[in-house]
Amino acid sequence: MLATIEGSDRSRAPLLVHGHLDVVPAHAPDWSVNPFAGEVRDGYLWGRGAIDMLDMDAIILASLERLQARGEKPARDVVLAFTADEEAGGLFGAHWMVDNMPGEFAHCSEAVGEVGGFSITVADQRLYLIETAEKGIAWMRLVANGTAGHGSLRNKDNAVVHLAEAVAAIGAHEWPTQLAPSVNGLLSEAAEILGMPFNPSGSDALEEAERIVESLGAIGKMIMPTLKNSSNPTMLDAGYKLNVIPGAATAHVDGRFLPGERDDFLATIDALIGPHVRRESYHDDISLETTFDGALVDAMTASLTKLDPGARVVSYMLSGGTDAKAFSQLGMRCFGFAPLRLPADLDFAALFHGVDERVPVESLKFGVDVFTDFLKTC
């Protein structure tokens, strides 16, 4: 769904505001509530998509509705896009629109989407994390071929063994820590609050970075993967009978690489899998990174601190991916900005695609207040 909301200054480049409408599946017996009922209980709105990302979709619509009810306009034109298929890579959603309808976004200079603007609490100080970067995606299929034969015979060309060695090498590989500018913003602020040393250009920066992330508690699960590339074997398939050595075996690997690291990442994977296994691309998508500056960042920061005085606003990198990967290819600077003031004890990272996904109702109300103010000033 596409729409343009007229702004008060139409001479300025429009802002793209995008959200996806699809969600991942939910196995209802595992949940405390019906995952698709949208139940409000104990101060939370429960349901699949409550965090990823129907919460932001609702915040966007409620903010625009509030402006309309007041007879107000956004500061500039807003191109509103609700997409499908983001959870499967966006090939039939944002990527399709960028490939087939680029003119709809031709004049947009910047974009805001999901997984940013939420708060974390560090030593009683709230930090709001604006997403300015995303790791790239390299989902791979590994194929090992060998000589088929009877399971009782010696076989030095066993496809299962070739594949197992490759998968084990990938799983055991320790990727080096690397610090991107988007990550340093969060680490620097957290280090100052915690009273921990951190000098991004110092000789101990990599060790300091890991210690800081480990001190962040549960949210560290989202931050630690942004310090290095990752490669996780996820699926295996081989054979059709116990006493038959198969002629082929396959595995799938979820690979994620830091901005600017794609070529080195794939070269390392190829060296790890060895000569008996070939790598095939299952799904690839780019990494991205923009700087944490400019009028749009100032507007996000001002709206957050207006509604939560004393809060700190910092940049961070998302270890996963969003539709920003598609829209950035049209030259836009893309940010994650779905503002939520969260309880300090909420394990926010565990809610993404998790059982009993939920969002605090008060966080949604805060998000509408912030996003409404942001649209008026951006």
Q: How would you explain this protein's 3D organization?
A:
- With 378 residues, the protein is of the alpha+beta class.
- The strands form five sheets. A five-stranded mixed sheet has the order 1-5-2-6-17. Strands 7, 8, 15 and 16 form a four-stranded mixed sheet that branches. Strands 11-13-9-14 form a four-stranded antiparallel sheet.
- It is 31% helix and 26% strand.
- The mean pLDDT is 96.
- The protein has helices spanning 54-70, 94-100, 159-172, 181-194, 205-214, 220-223, 262-273, 295-307, 324-327, 348-351, 361-377; strands at residues 2-5, 15-20, 39-41, 44-46, 78-83, 110-113, 118-122, 125-134, 136-145, 149-150, 230-238, 244-245, 248-257, 277-285, 288-289, 312-318, 333-336, 358-360.
- Strand 3 (39-41) and strand 4 (44-46) form a beta hairpin.
Low-confidence stretches: none
Q: Order of strands in the sheet with the most strands?
A: 1-5-2-6-17
**Total beta strands:** 18
- Could you tell me the CATH topology label of the largest domain: Aminopeptidase
Overall geometry comes to globular
Name the helix and strand elements from N-terminus to C-terminus, one letter apiece. Answer: EEEEHEHEEEEEHHHHEEEHEEHEHEHEH
**Terminal residue distance:** 23 Å
**Cα radius of gyration in angstroms:** 23 Å
CATH architecture of the largest domain: 3-Layer(aba) Sandwich
Helix tally equals: 11
Classify the secondary structure makeup into a structural class: alpha+beta
CATH class of the largest domain: Alpha Beta
Describe the main β-sheet briefly. Answer: 5 strands, mixed
CATH-defined superfamily of the largest domain: Zn peptidases
The residue fraction in helices comes out at 25-40%
Task: Give the rounded overall mean pLDDT.
Answer: 96
Q: Structurally, how many domains make up the residues?
A: 2
Strand content: 25-35%
